[in-house]
Structures are given as C-alpha cells and as structure tokens.
Prior knowledge:
Elements: H1 8-35, H2 37-50, H3 66-78, E1 88-90, E2 94-96, E3 99-101, E4 105-107, H4 111-114, H5 163-181, E5 182-185, E6 211-214
Helix pairs in contact: 1-2, 1-3, 1-5
Amino acid sequence: MCLPASQKPCEKNMFKAGTDTSTIIVEWALAEMLKNPTIFKRMQSEMDTVIGQDRLLEESDILNLPYLQAVVKEALRLHPSTPLSLPHYSFESCEINGYHIPANTRLITNVWAIGRDPDAWDNPLEFDPDRFLPGGKAYNIEPHGNDFEFIPFGAGRRICPGKQTGILFFCSIFLGAVVHGFDWRLPDGEVIDMKETPGLVMPKTIPIKAFVTPRLASTAYPH
C-alpha cells in the first residue's frame, strides 16, 4: 500500500522507534544473561524441552515458554529502552495527593527509576527473572500500563501503540531465537561492561562482543 506523502515521515518514525528500542532491550537481556550463565542455560533448557533442537522458535511457542517471558519482563524492568516517558501536559490546574499542579505543566515520568525503586521491588538492582514466575512477588505484574510500578511502555491513553508487537515479536521471538539457536561465549578475558549511555533511549555504552556457535541441527537453519 502506498501512503500519501504527508504520512510517510510518520511511518518512518514509527518504524525507526520500534526497531531501535527493541534491539536495545535484546542486547541488555543478552548482557545480563552472559553475566549470569545459569540464567542463560536455564532459558536454553526450557526451549530445548518445548521446541527441541530440530527446528527454530516459532510465535506459537511463546506461550509455552514462561521463563523466556520472565527474562523479557525483567530486562524491560531493569533496562527500559526509553528511560523517560514522552512529555505529558496538564491543560487545567489540578490537585493530586495534596500537590497543586498548575495548568500547562510538563510531566516527564522517570520509568528507569520506577523499575529500580526499592519500595516496589525486592533487590531492585539484581537481574532476577524468577520474580515474574509463579511464587515470585511480581508474578501478577504485567507491562501493560495497569501496574504503575512497571510501565516500560507508559500507561493510559498515550501508552506505546507498539507495546504488544514489541514484547512478542522483537523482544520474545528475537531474544528467544538468538539464545535457542546459538551458544554465546565472551572472548578470553572479556568482561561485560554494563555502563549506560543516557539519552532519549538508553543503549549500552560498549556493545556486546561475543563468539556465537550454532547449537541446533543443521537442518533447522535456513539455507
């Protein structure tokens, strides 16, 4: 379908925004798992049990991979690709919890800080996917805008329109595919640098450098 010229810049911006933010989340998740090989192996084990090693991950597999889903949620909590929400404005003055908010006030929500708030999360700086599994304190918390301690996509009427696509296709399927399909090894003496580059998005300052080795049957990979 050909869009009118006036719509093409918007289409380009939406595509770019979804690609950039999703790849950032996947890289952060990989970095955390390379720091914690037990998590990496546990995720591979789950996928080997559900999928096997004769084919690649498919969309229909995601619902049967709770640990993969938990890893994605934990990456979104600890490393939201957009650390500050888009600006919101109060068109009229109001009072919230005893605070007077003047009209035309600009509000920017610190999503990064909320995900690391010790009043909301146990051991908030620890990468622990188990918190999102049955028995974990965050088991019923979802990133859909209803649980305000976990809003990587924002909340309310201006929640990110690509939320579901980002979680399913870019984060879950992309991350699952590269972990299921390959073994990852850091170069000898290499240490994962977890520094962040602040900005509109928050990528790793130093990208991951690792060796990858196919781990599935050769017939599983496209030729």
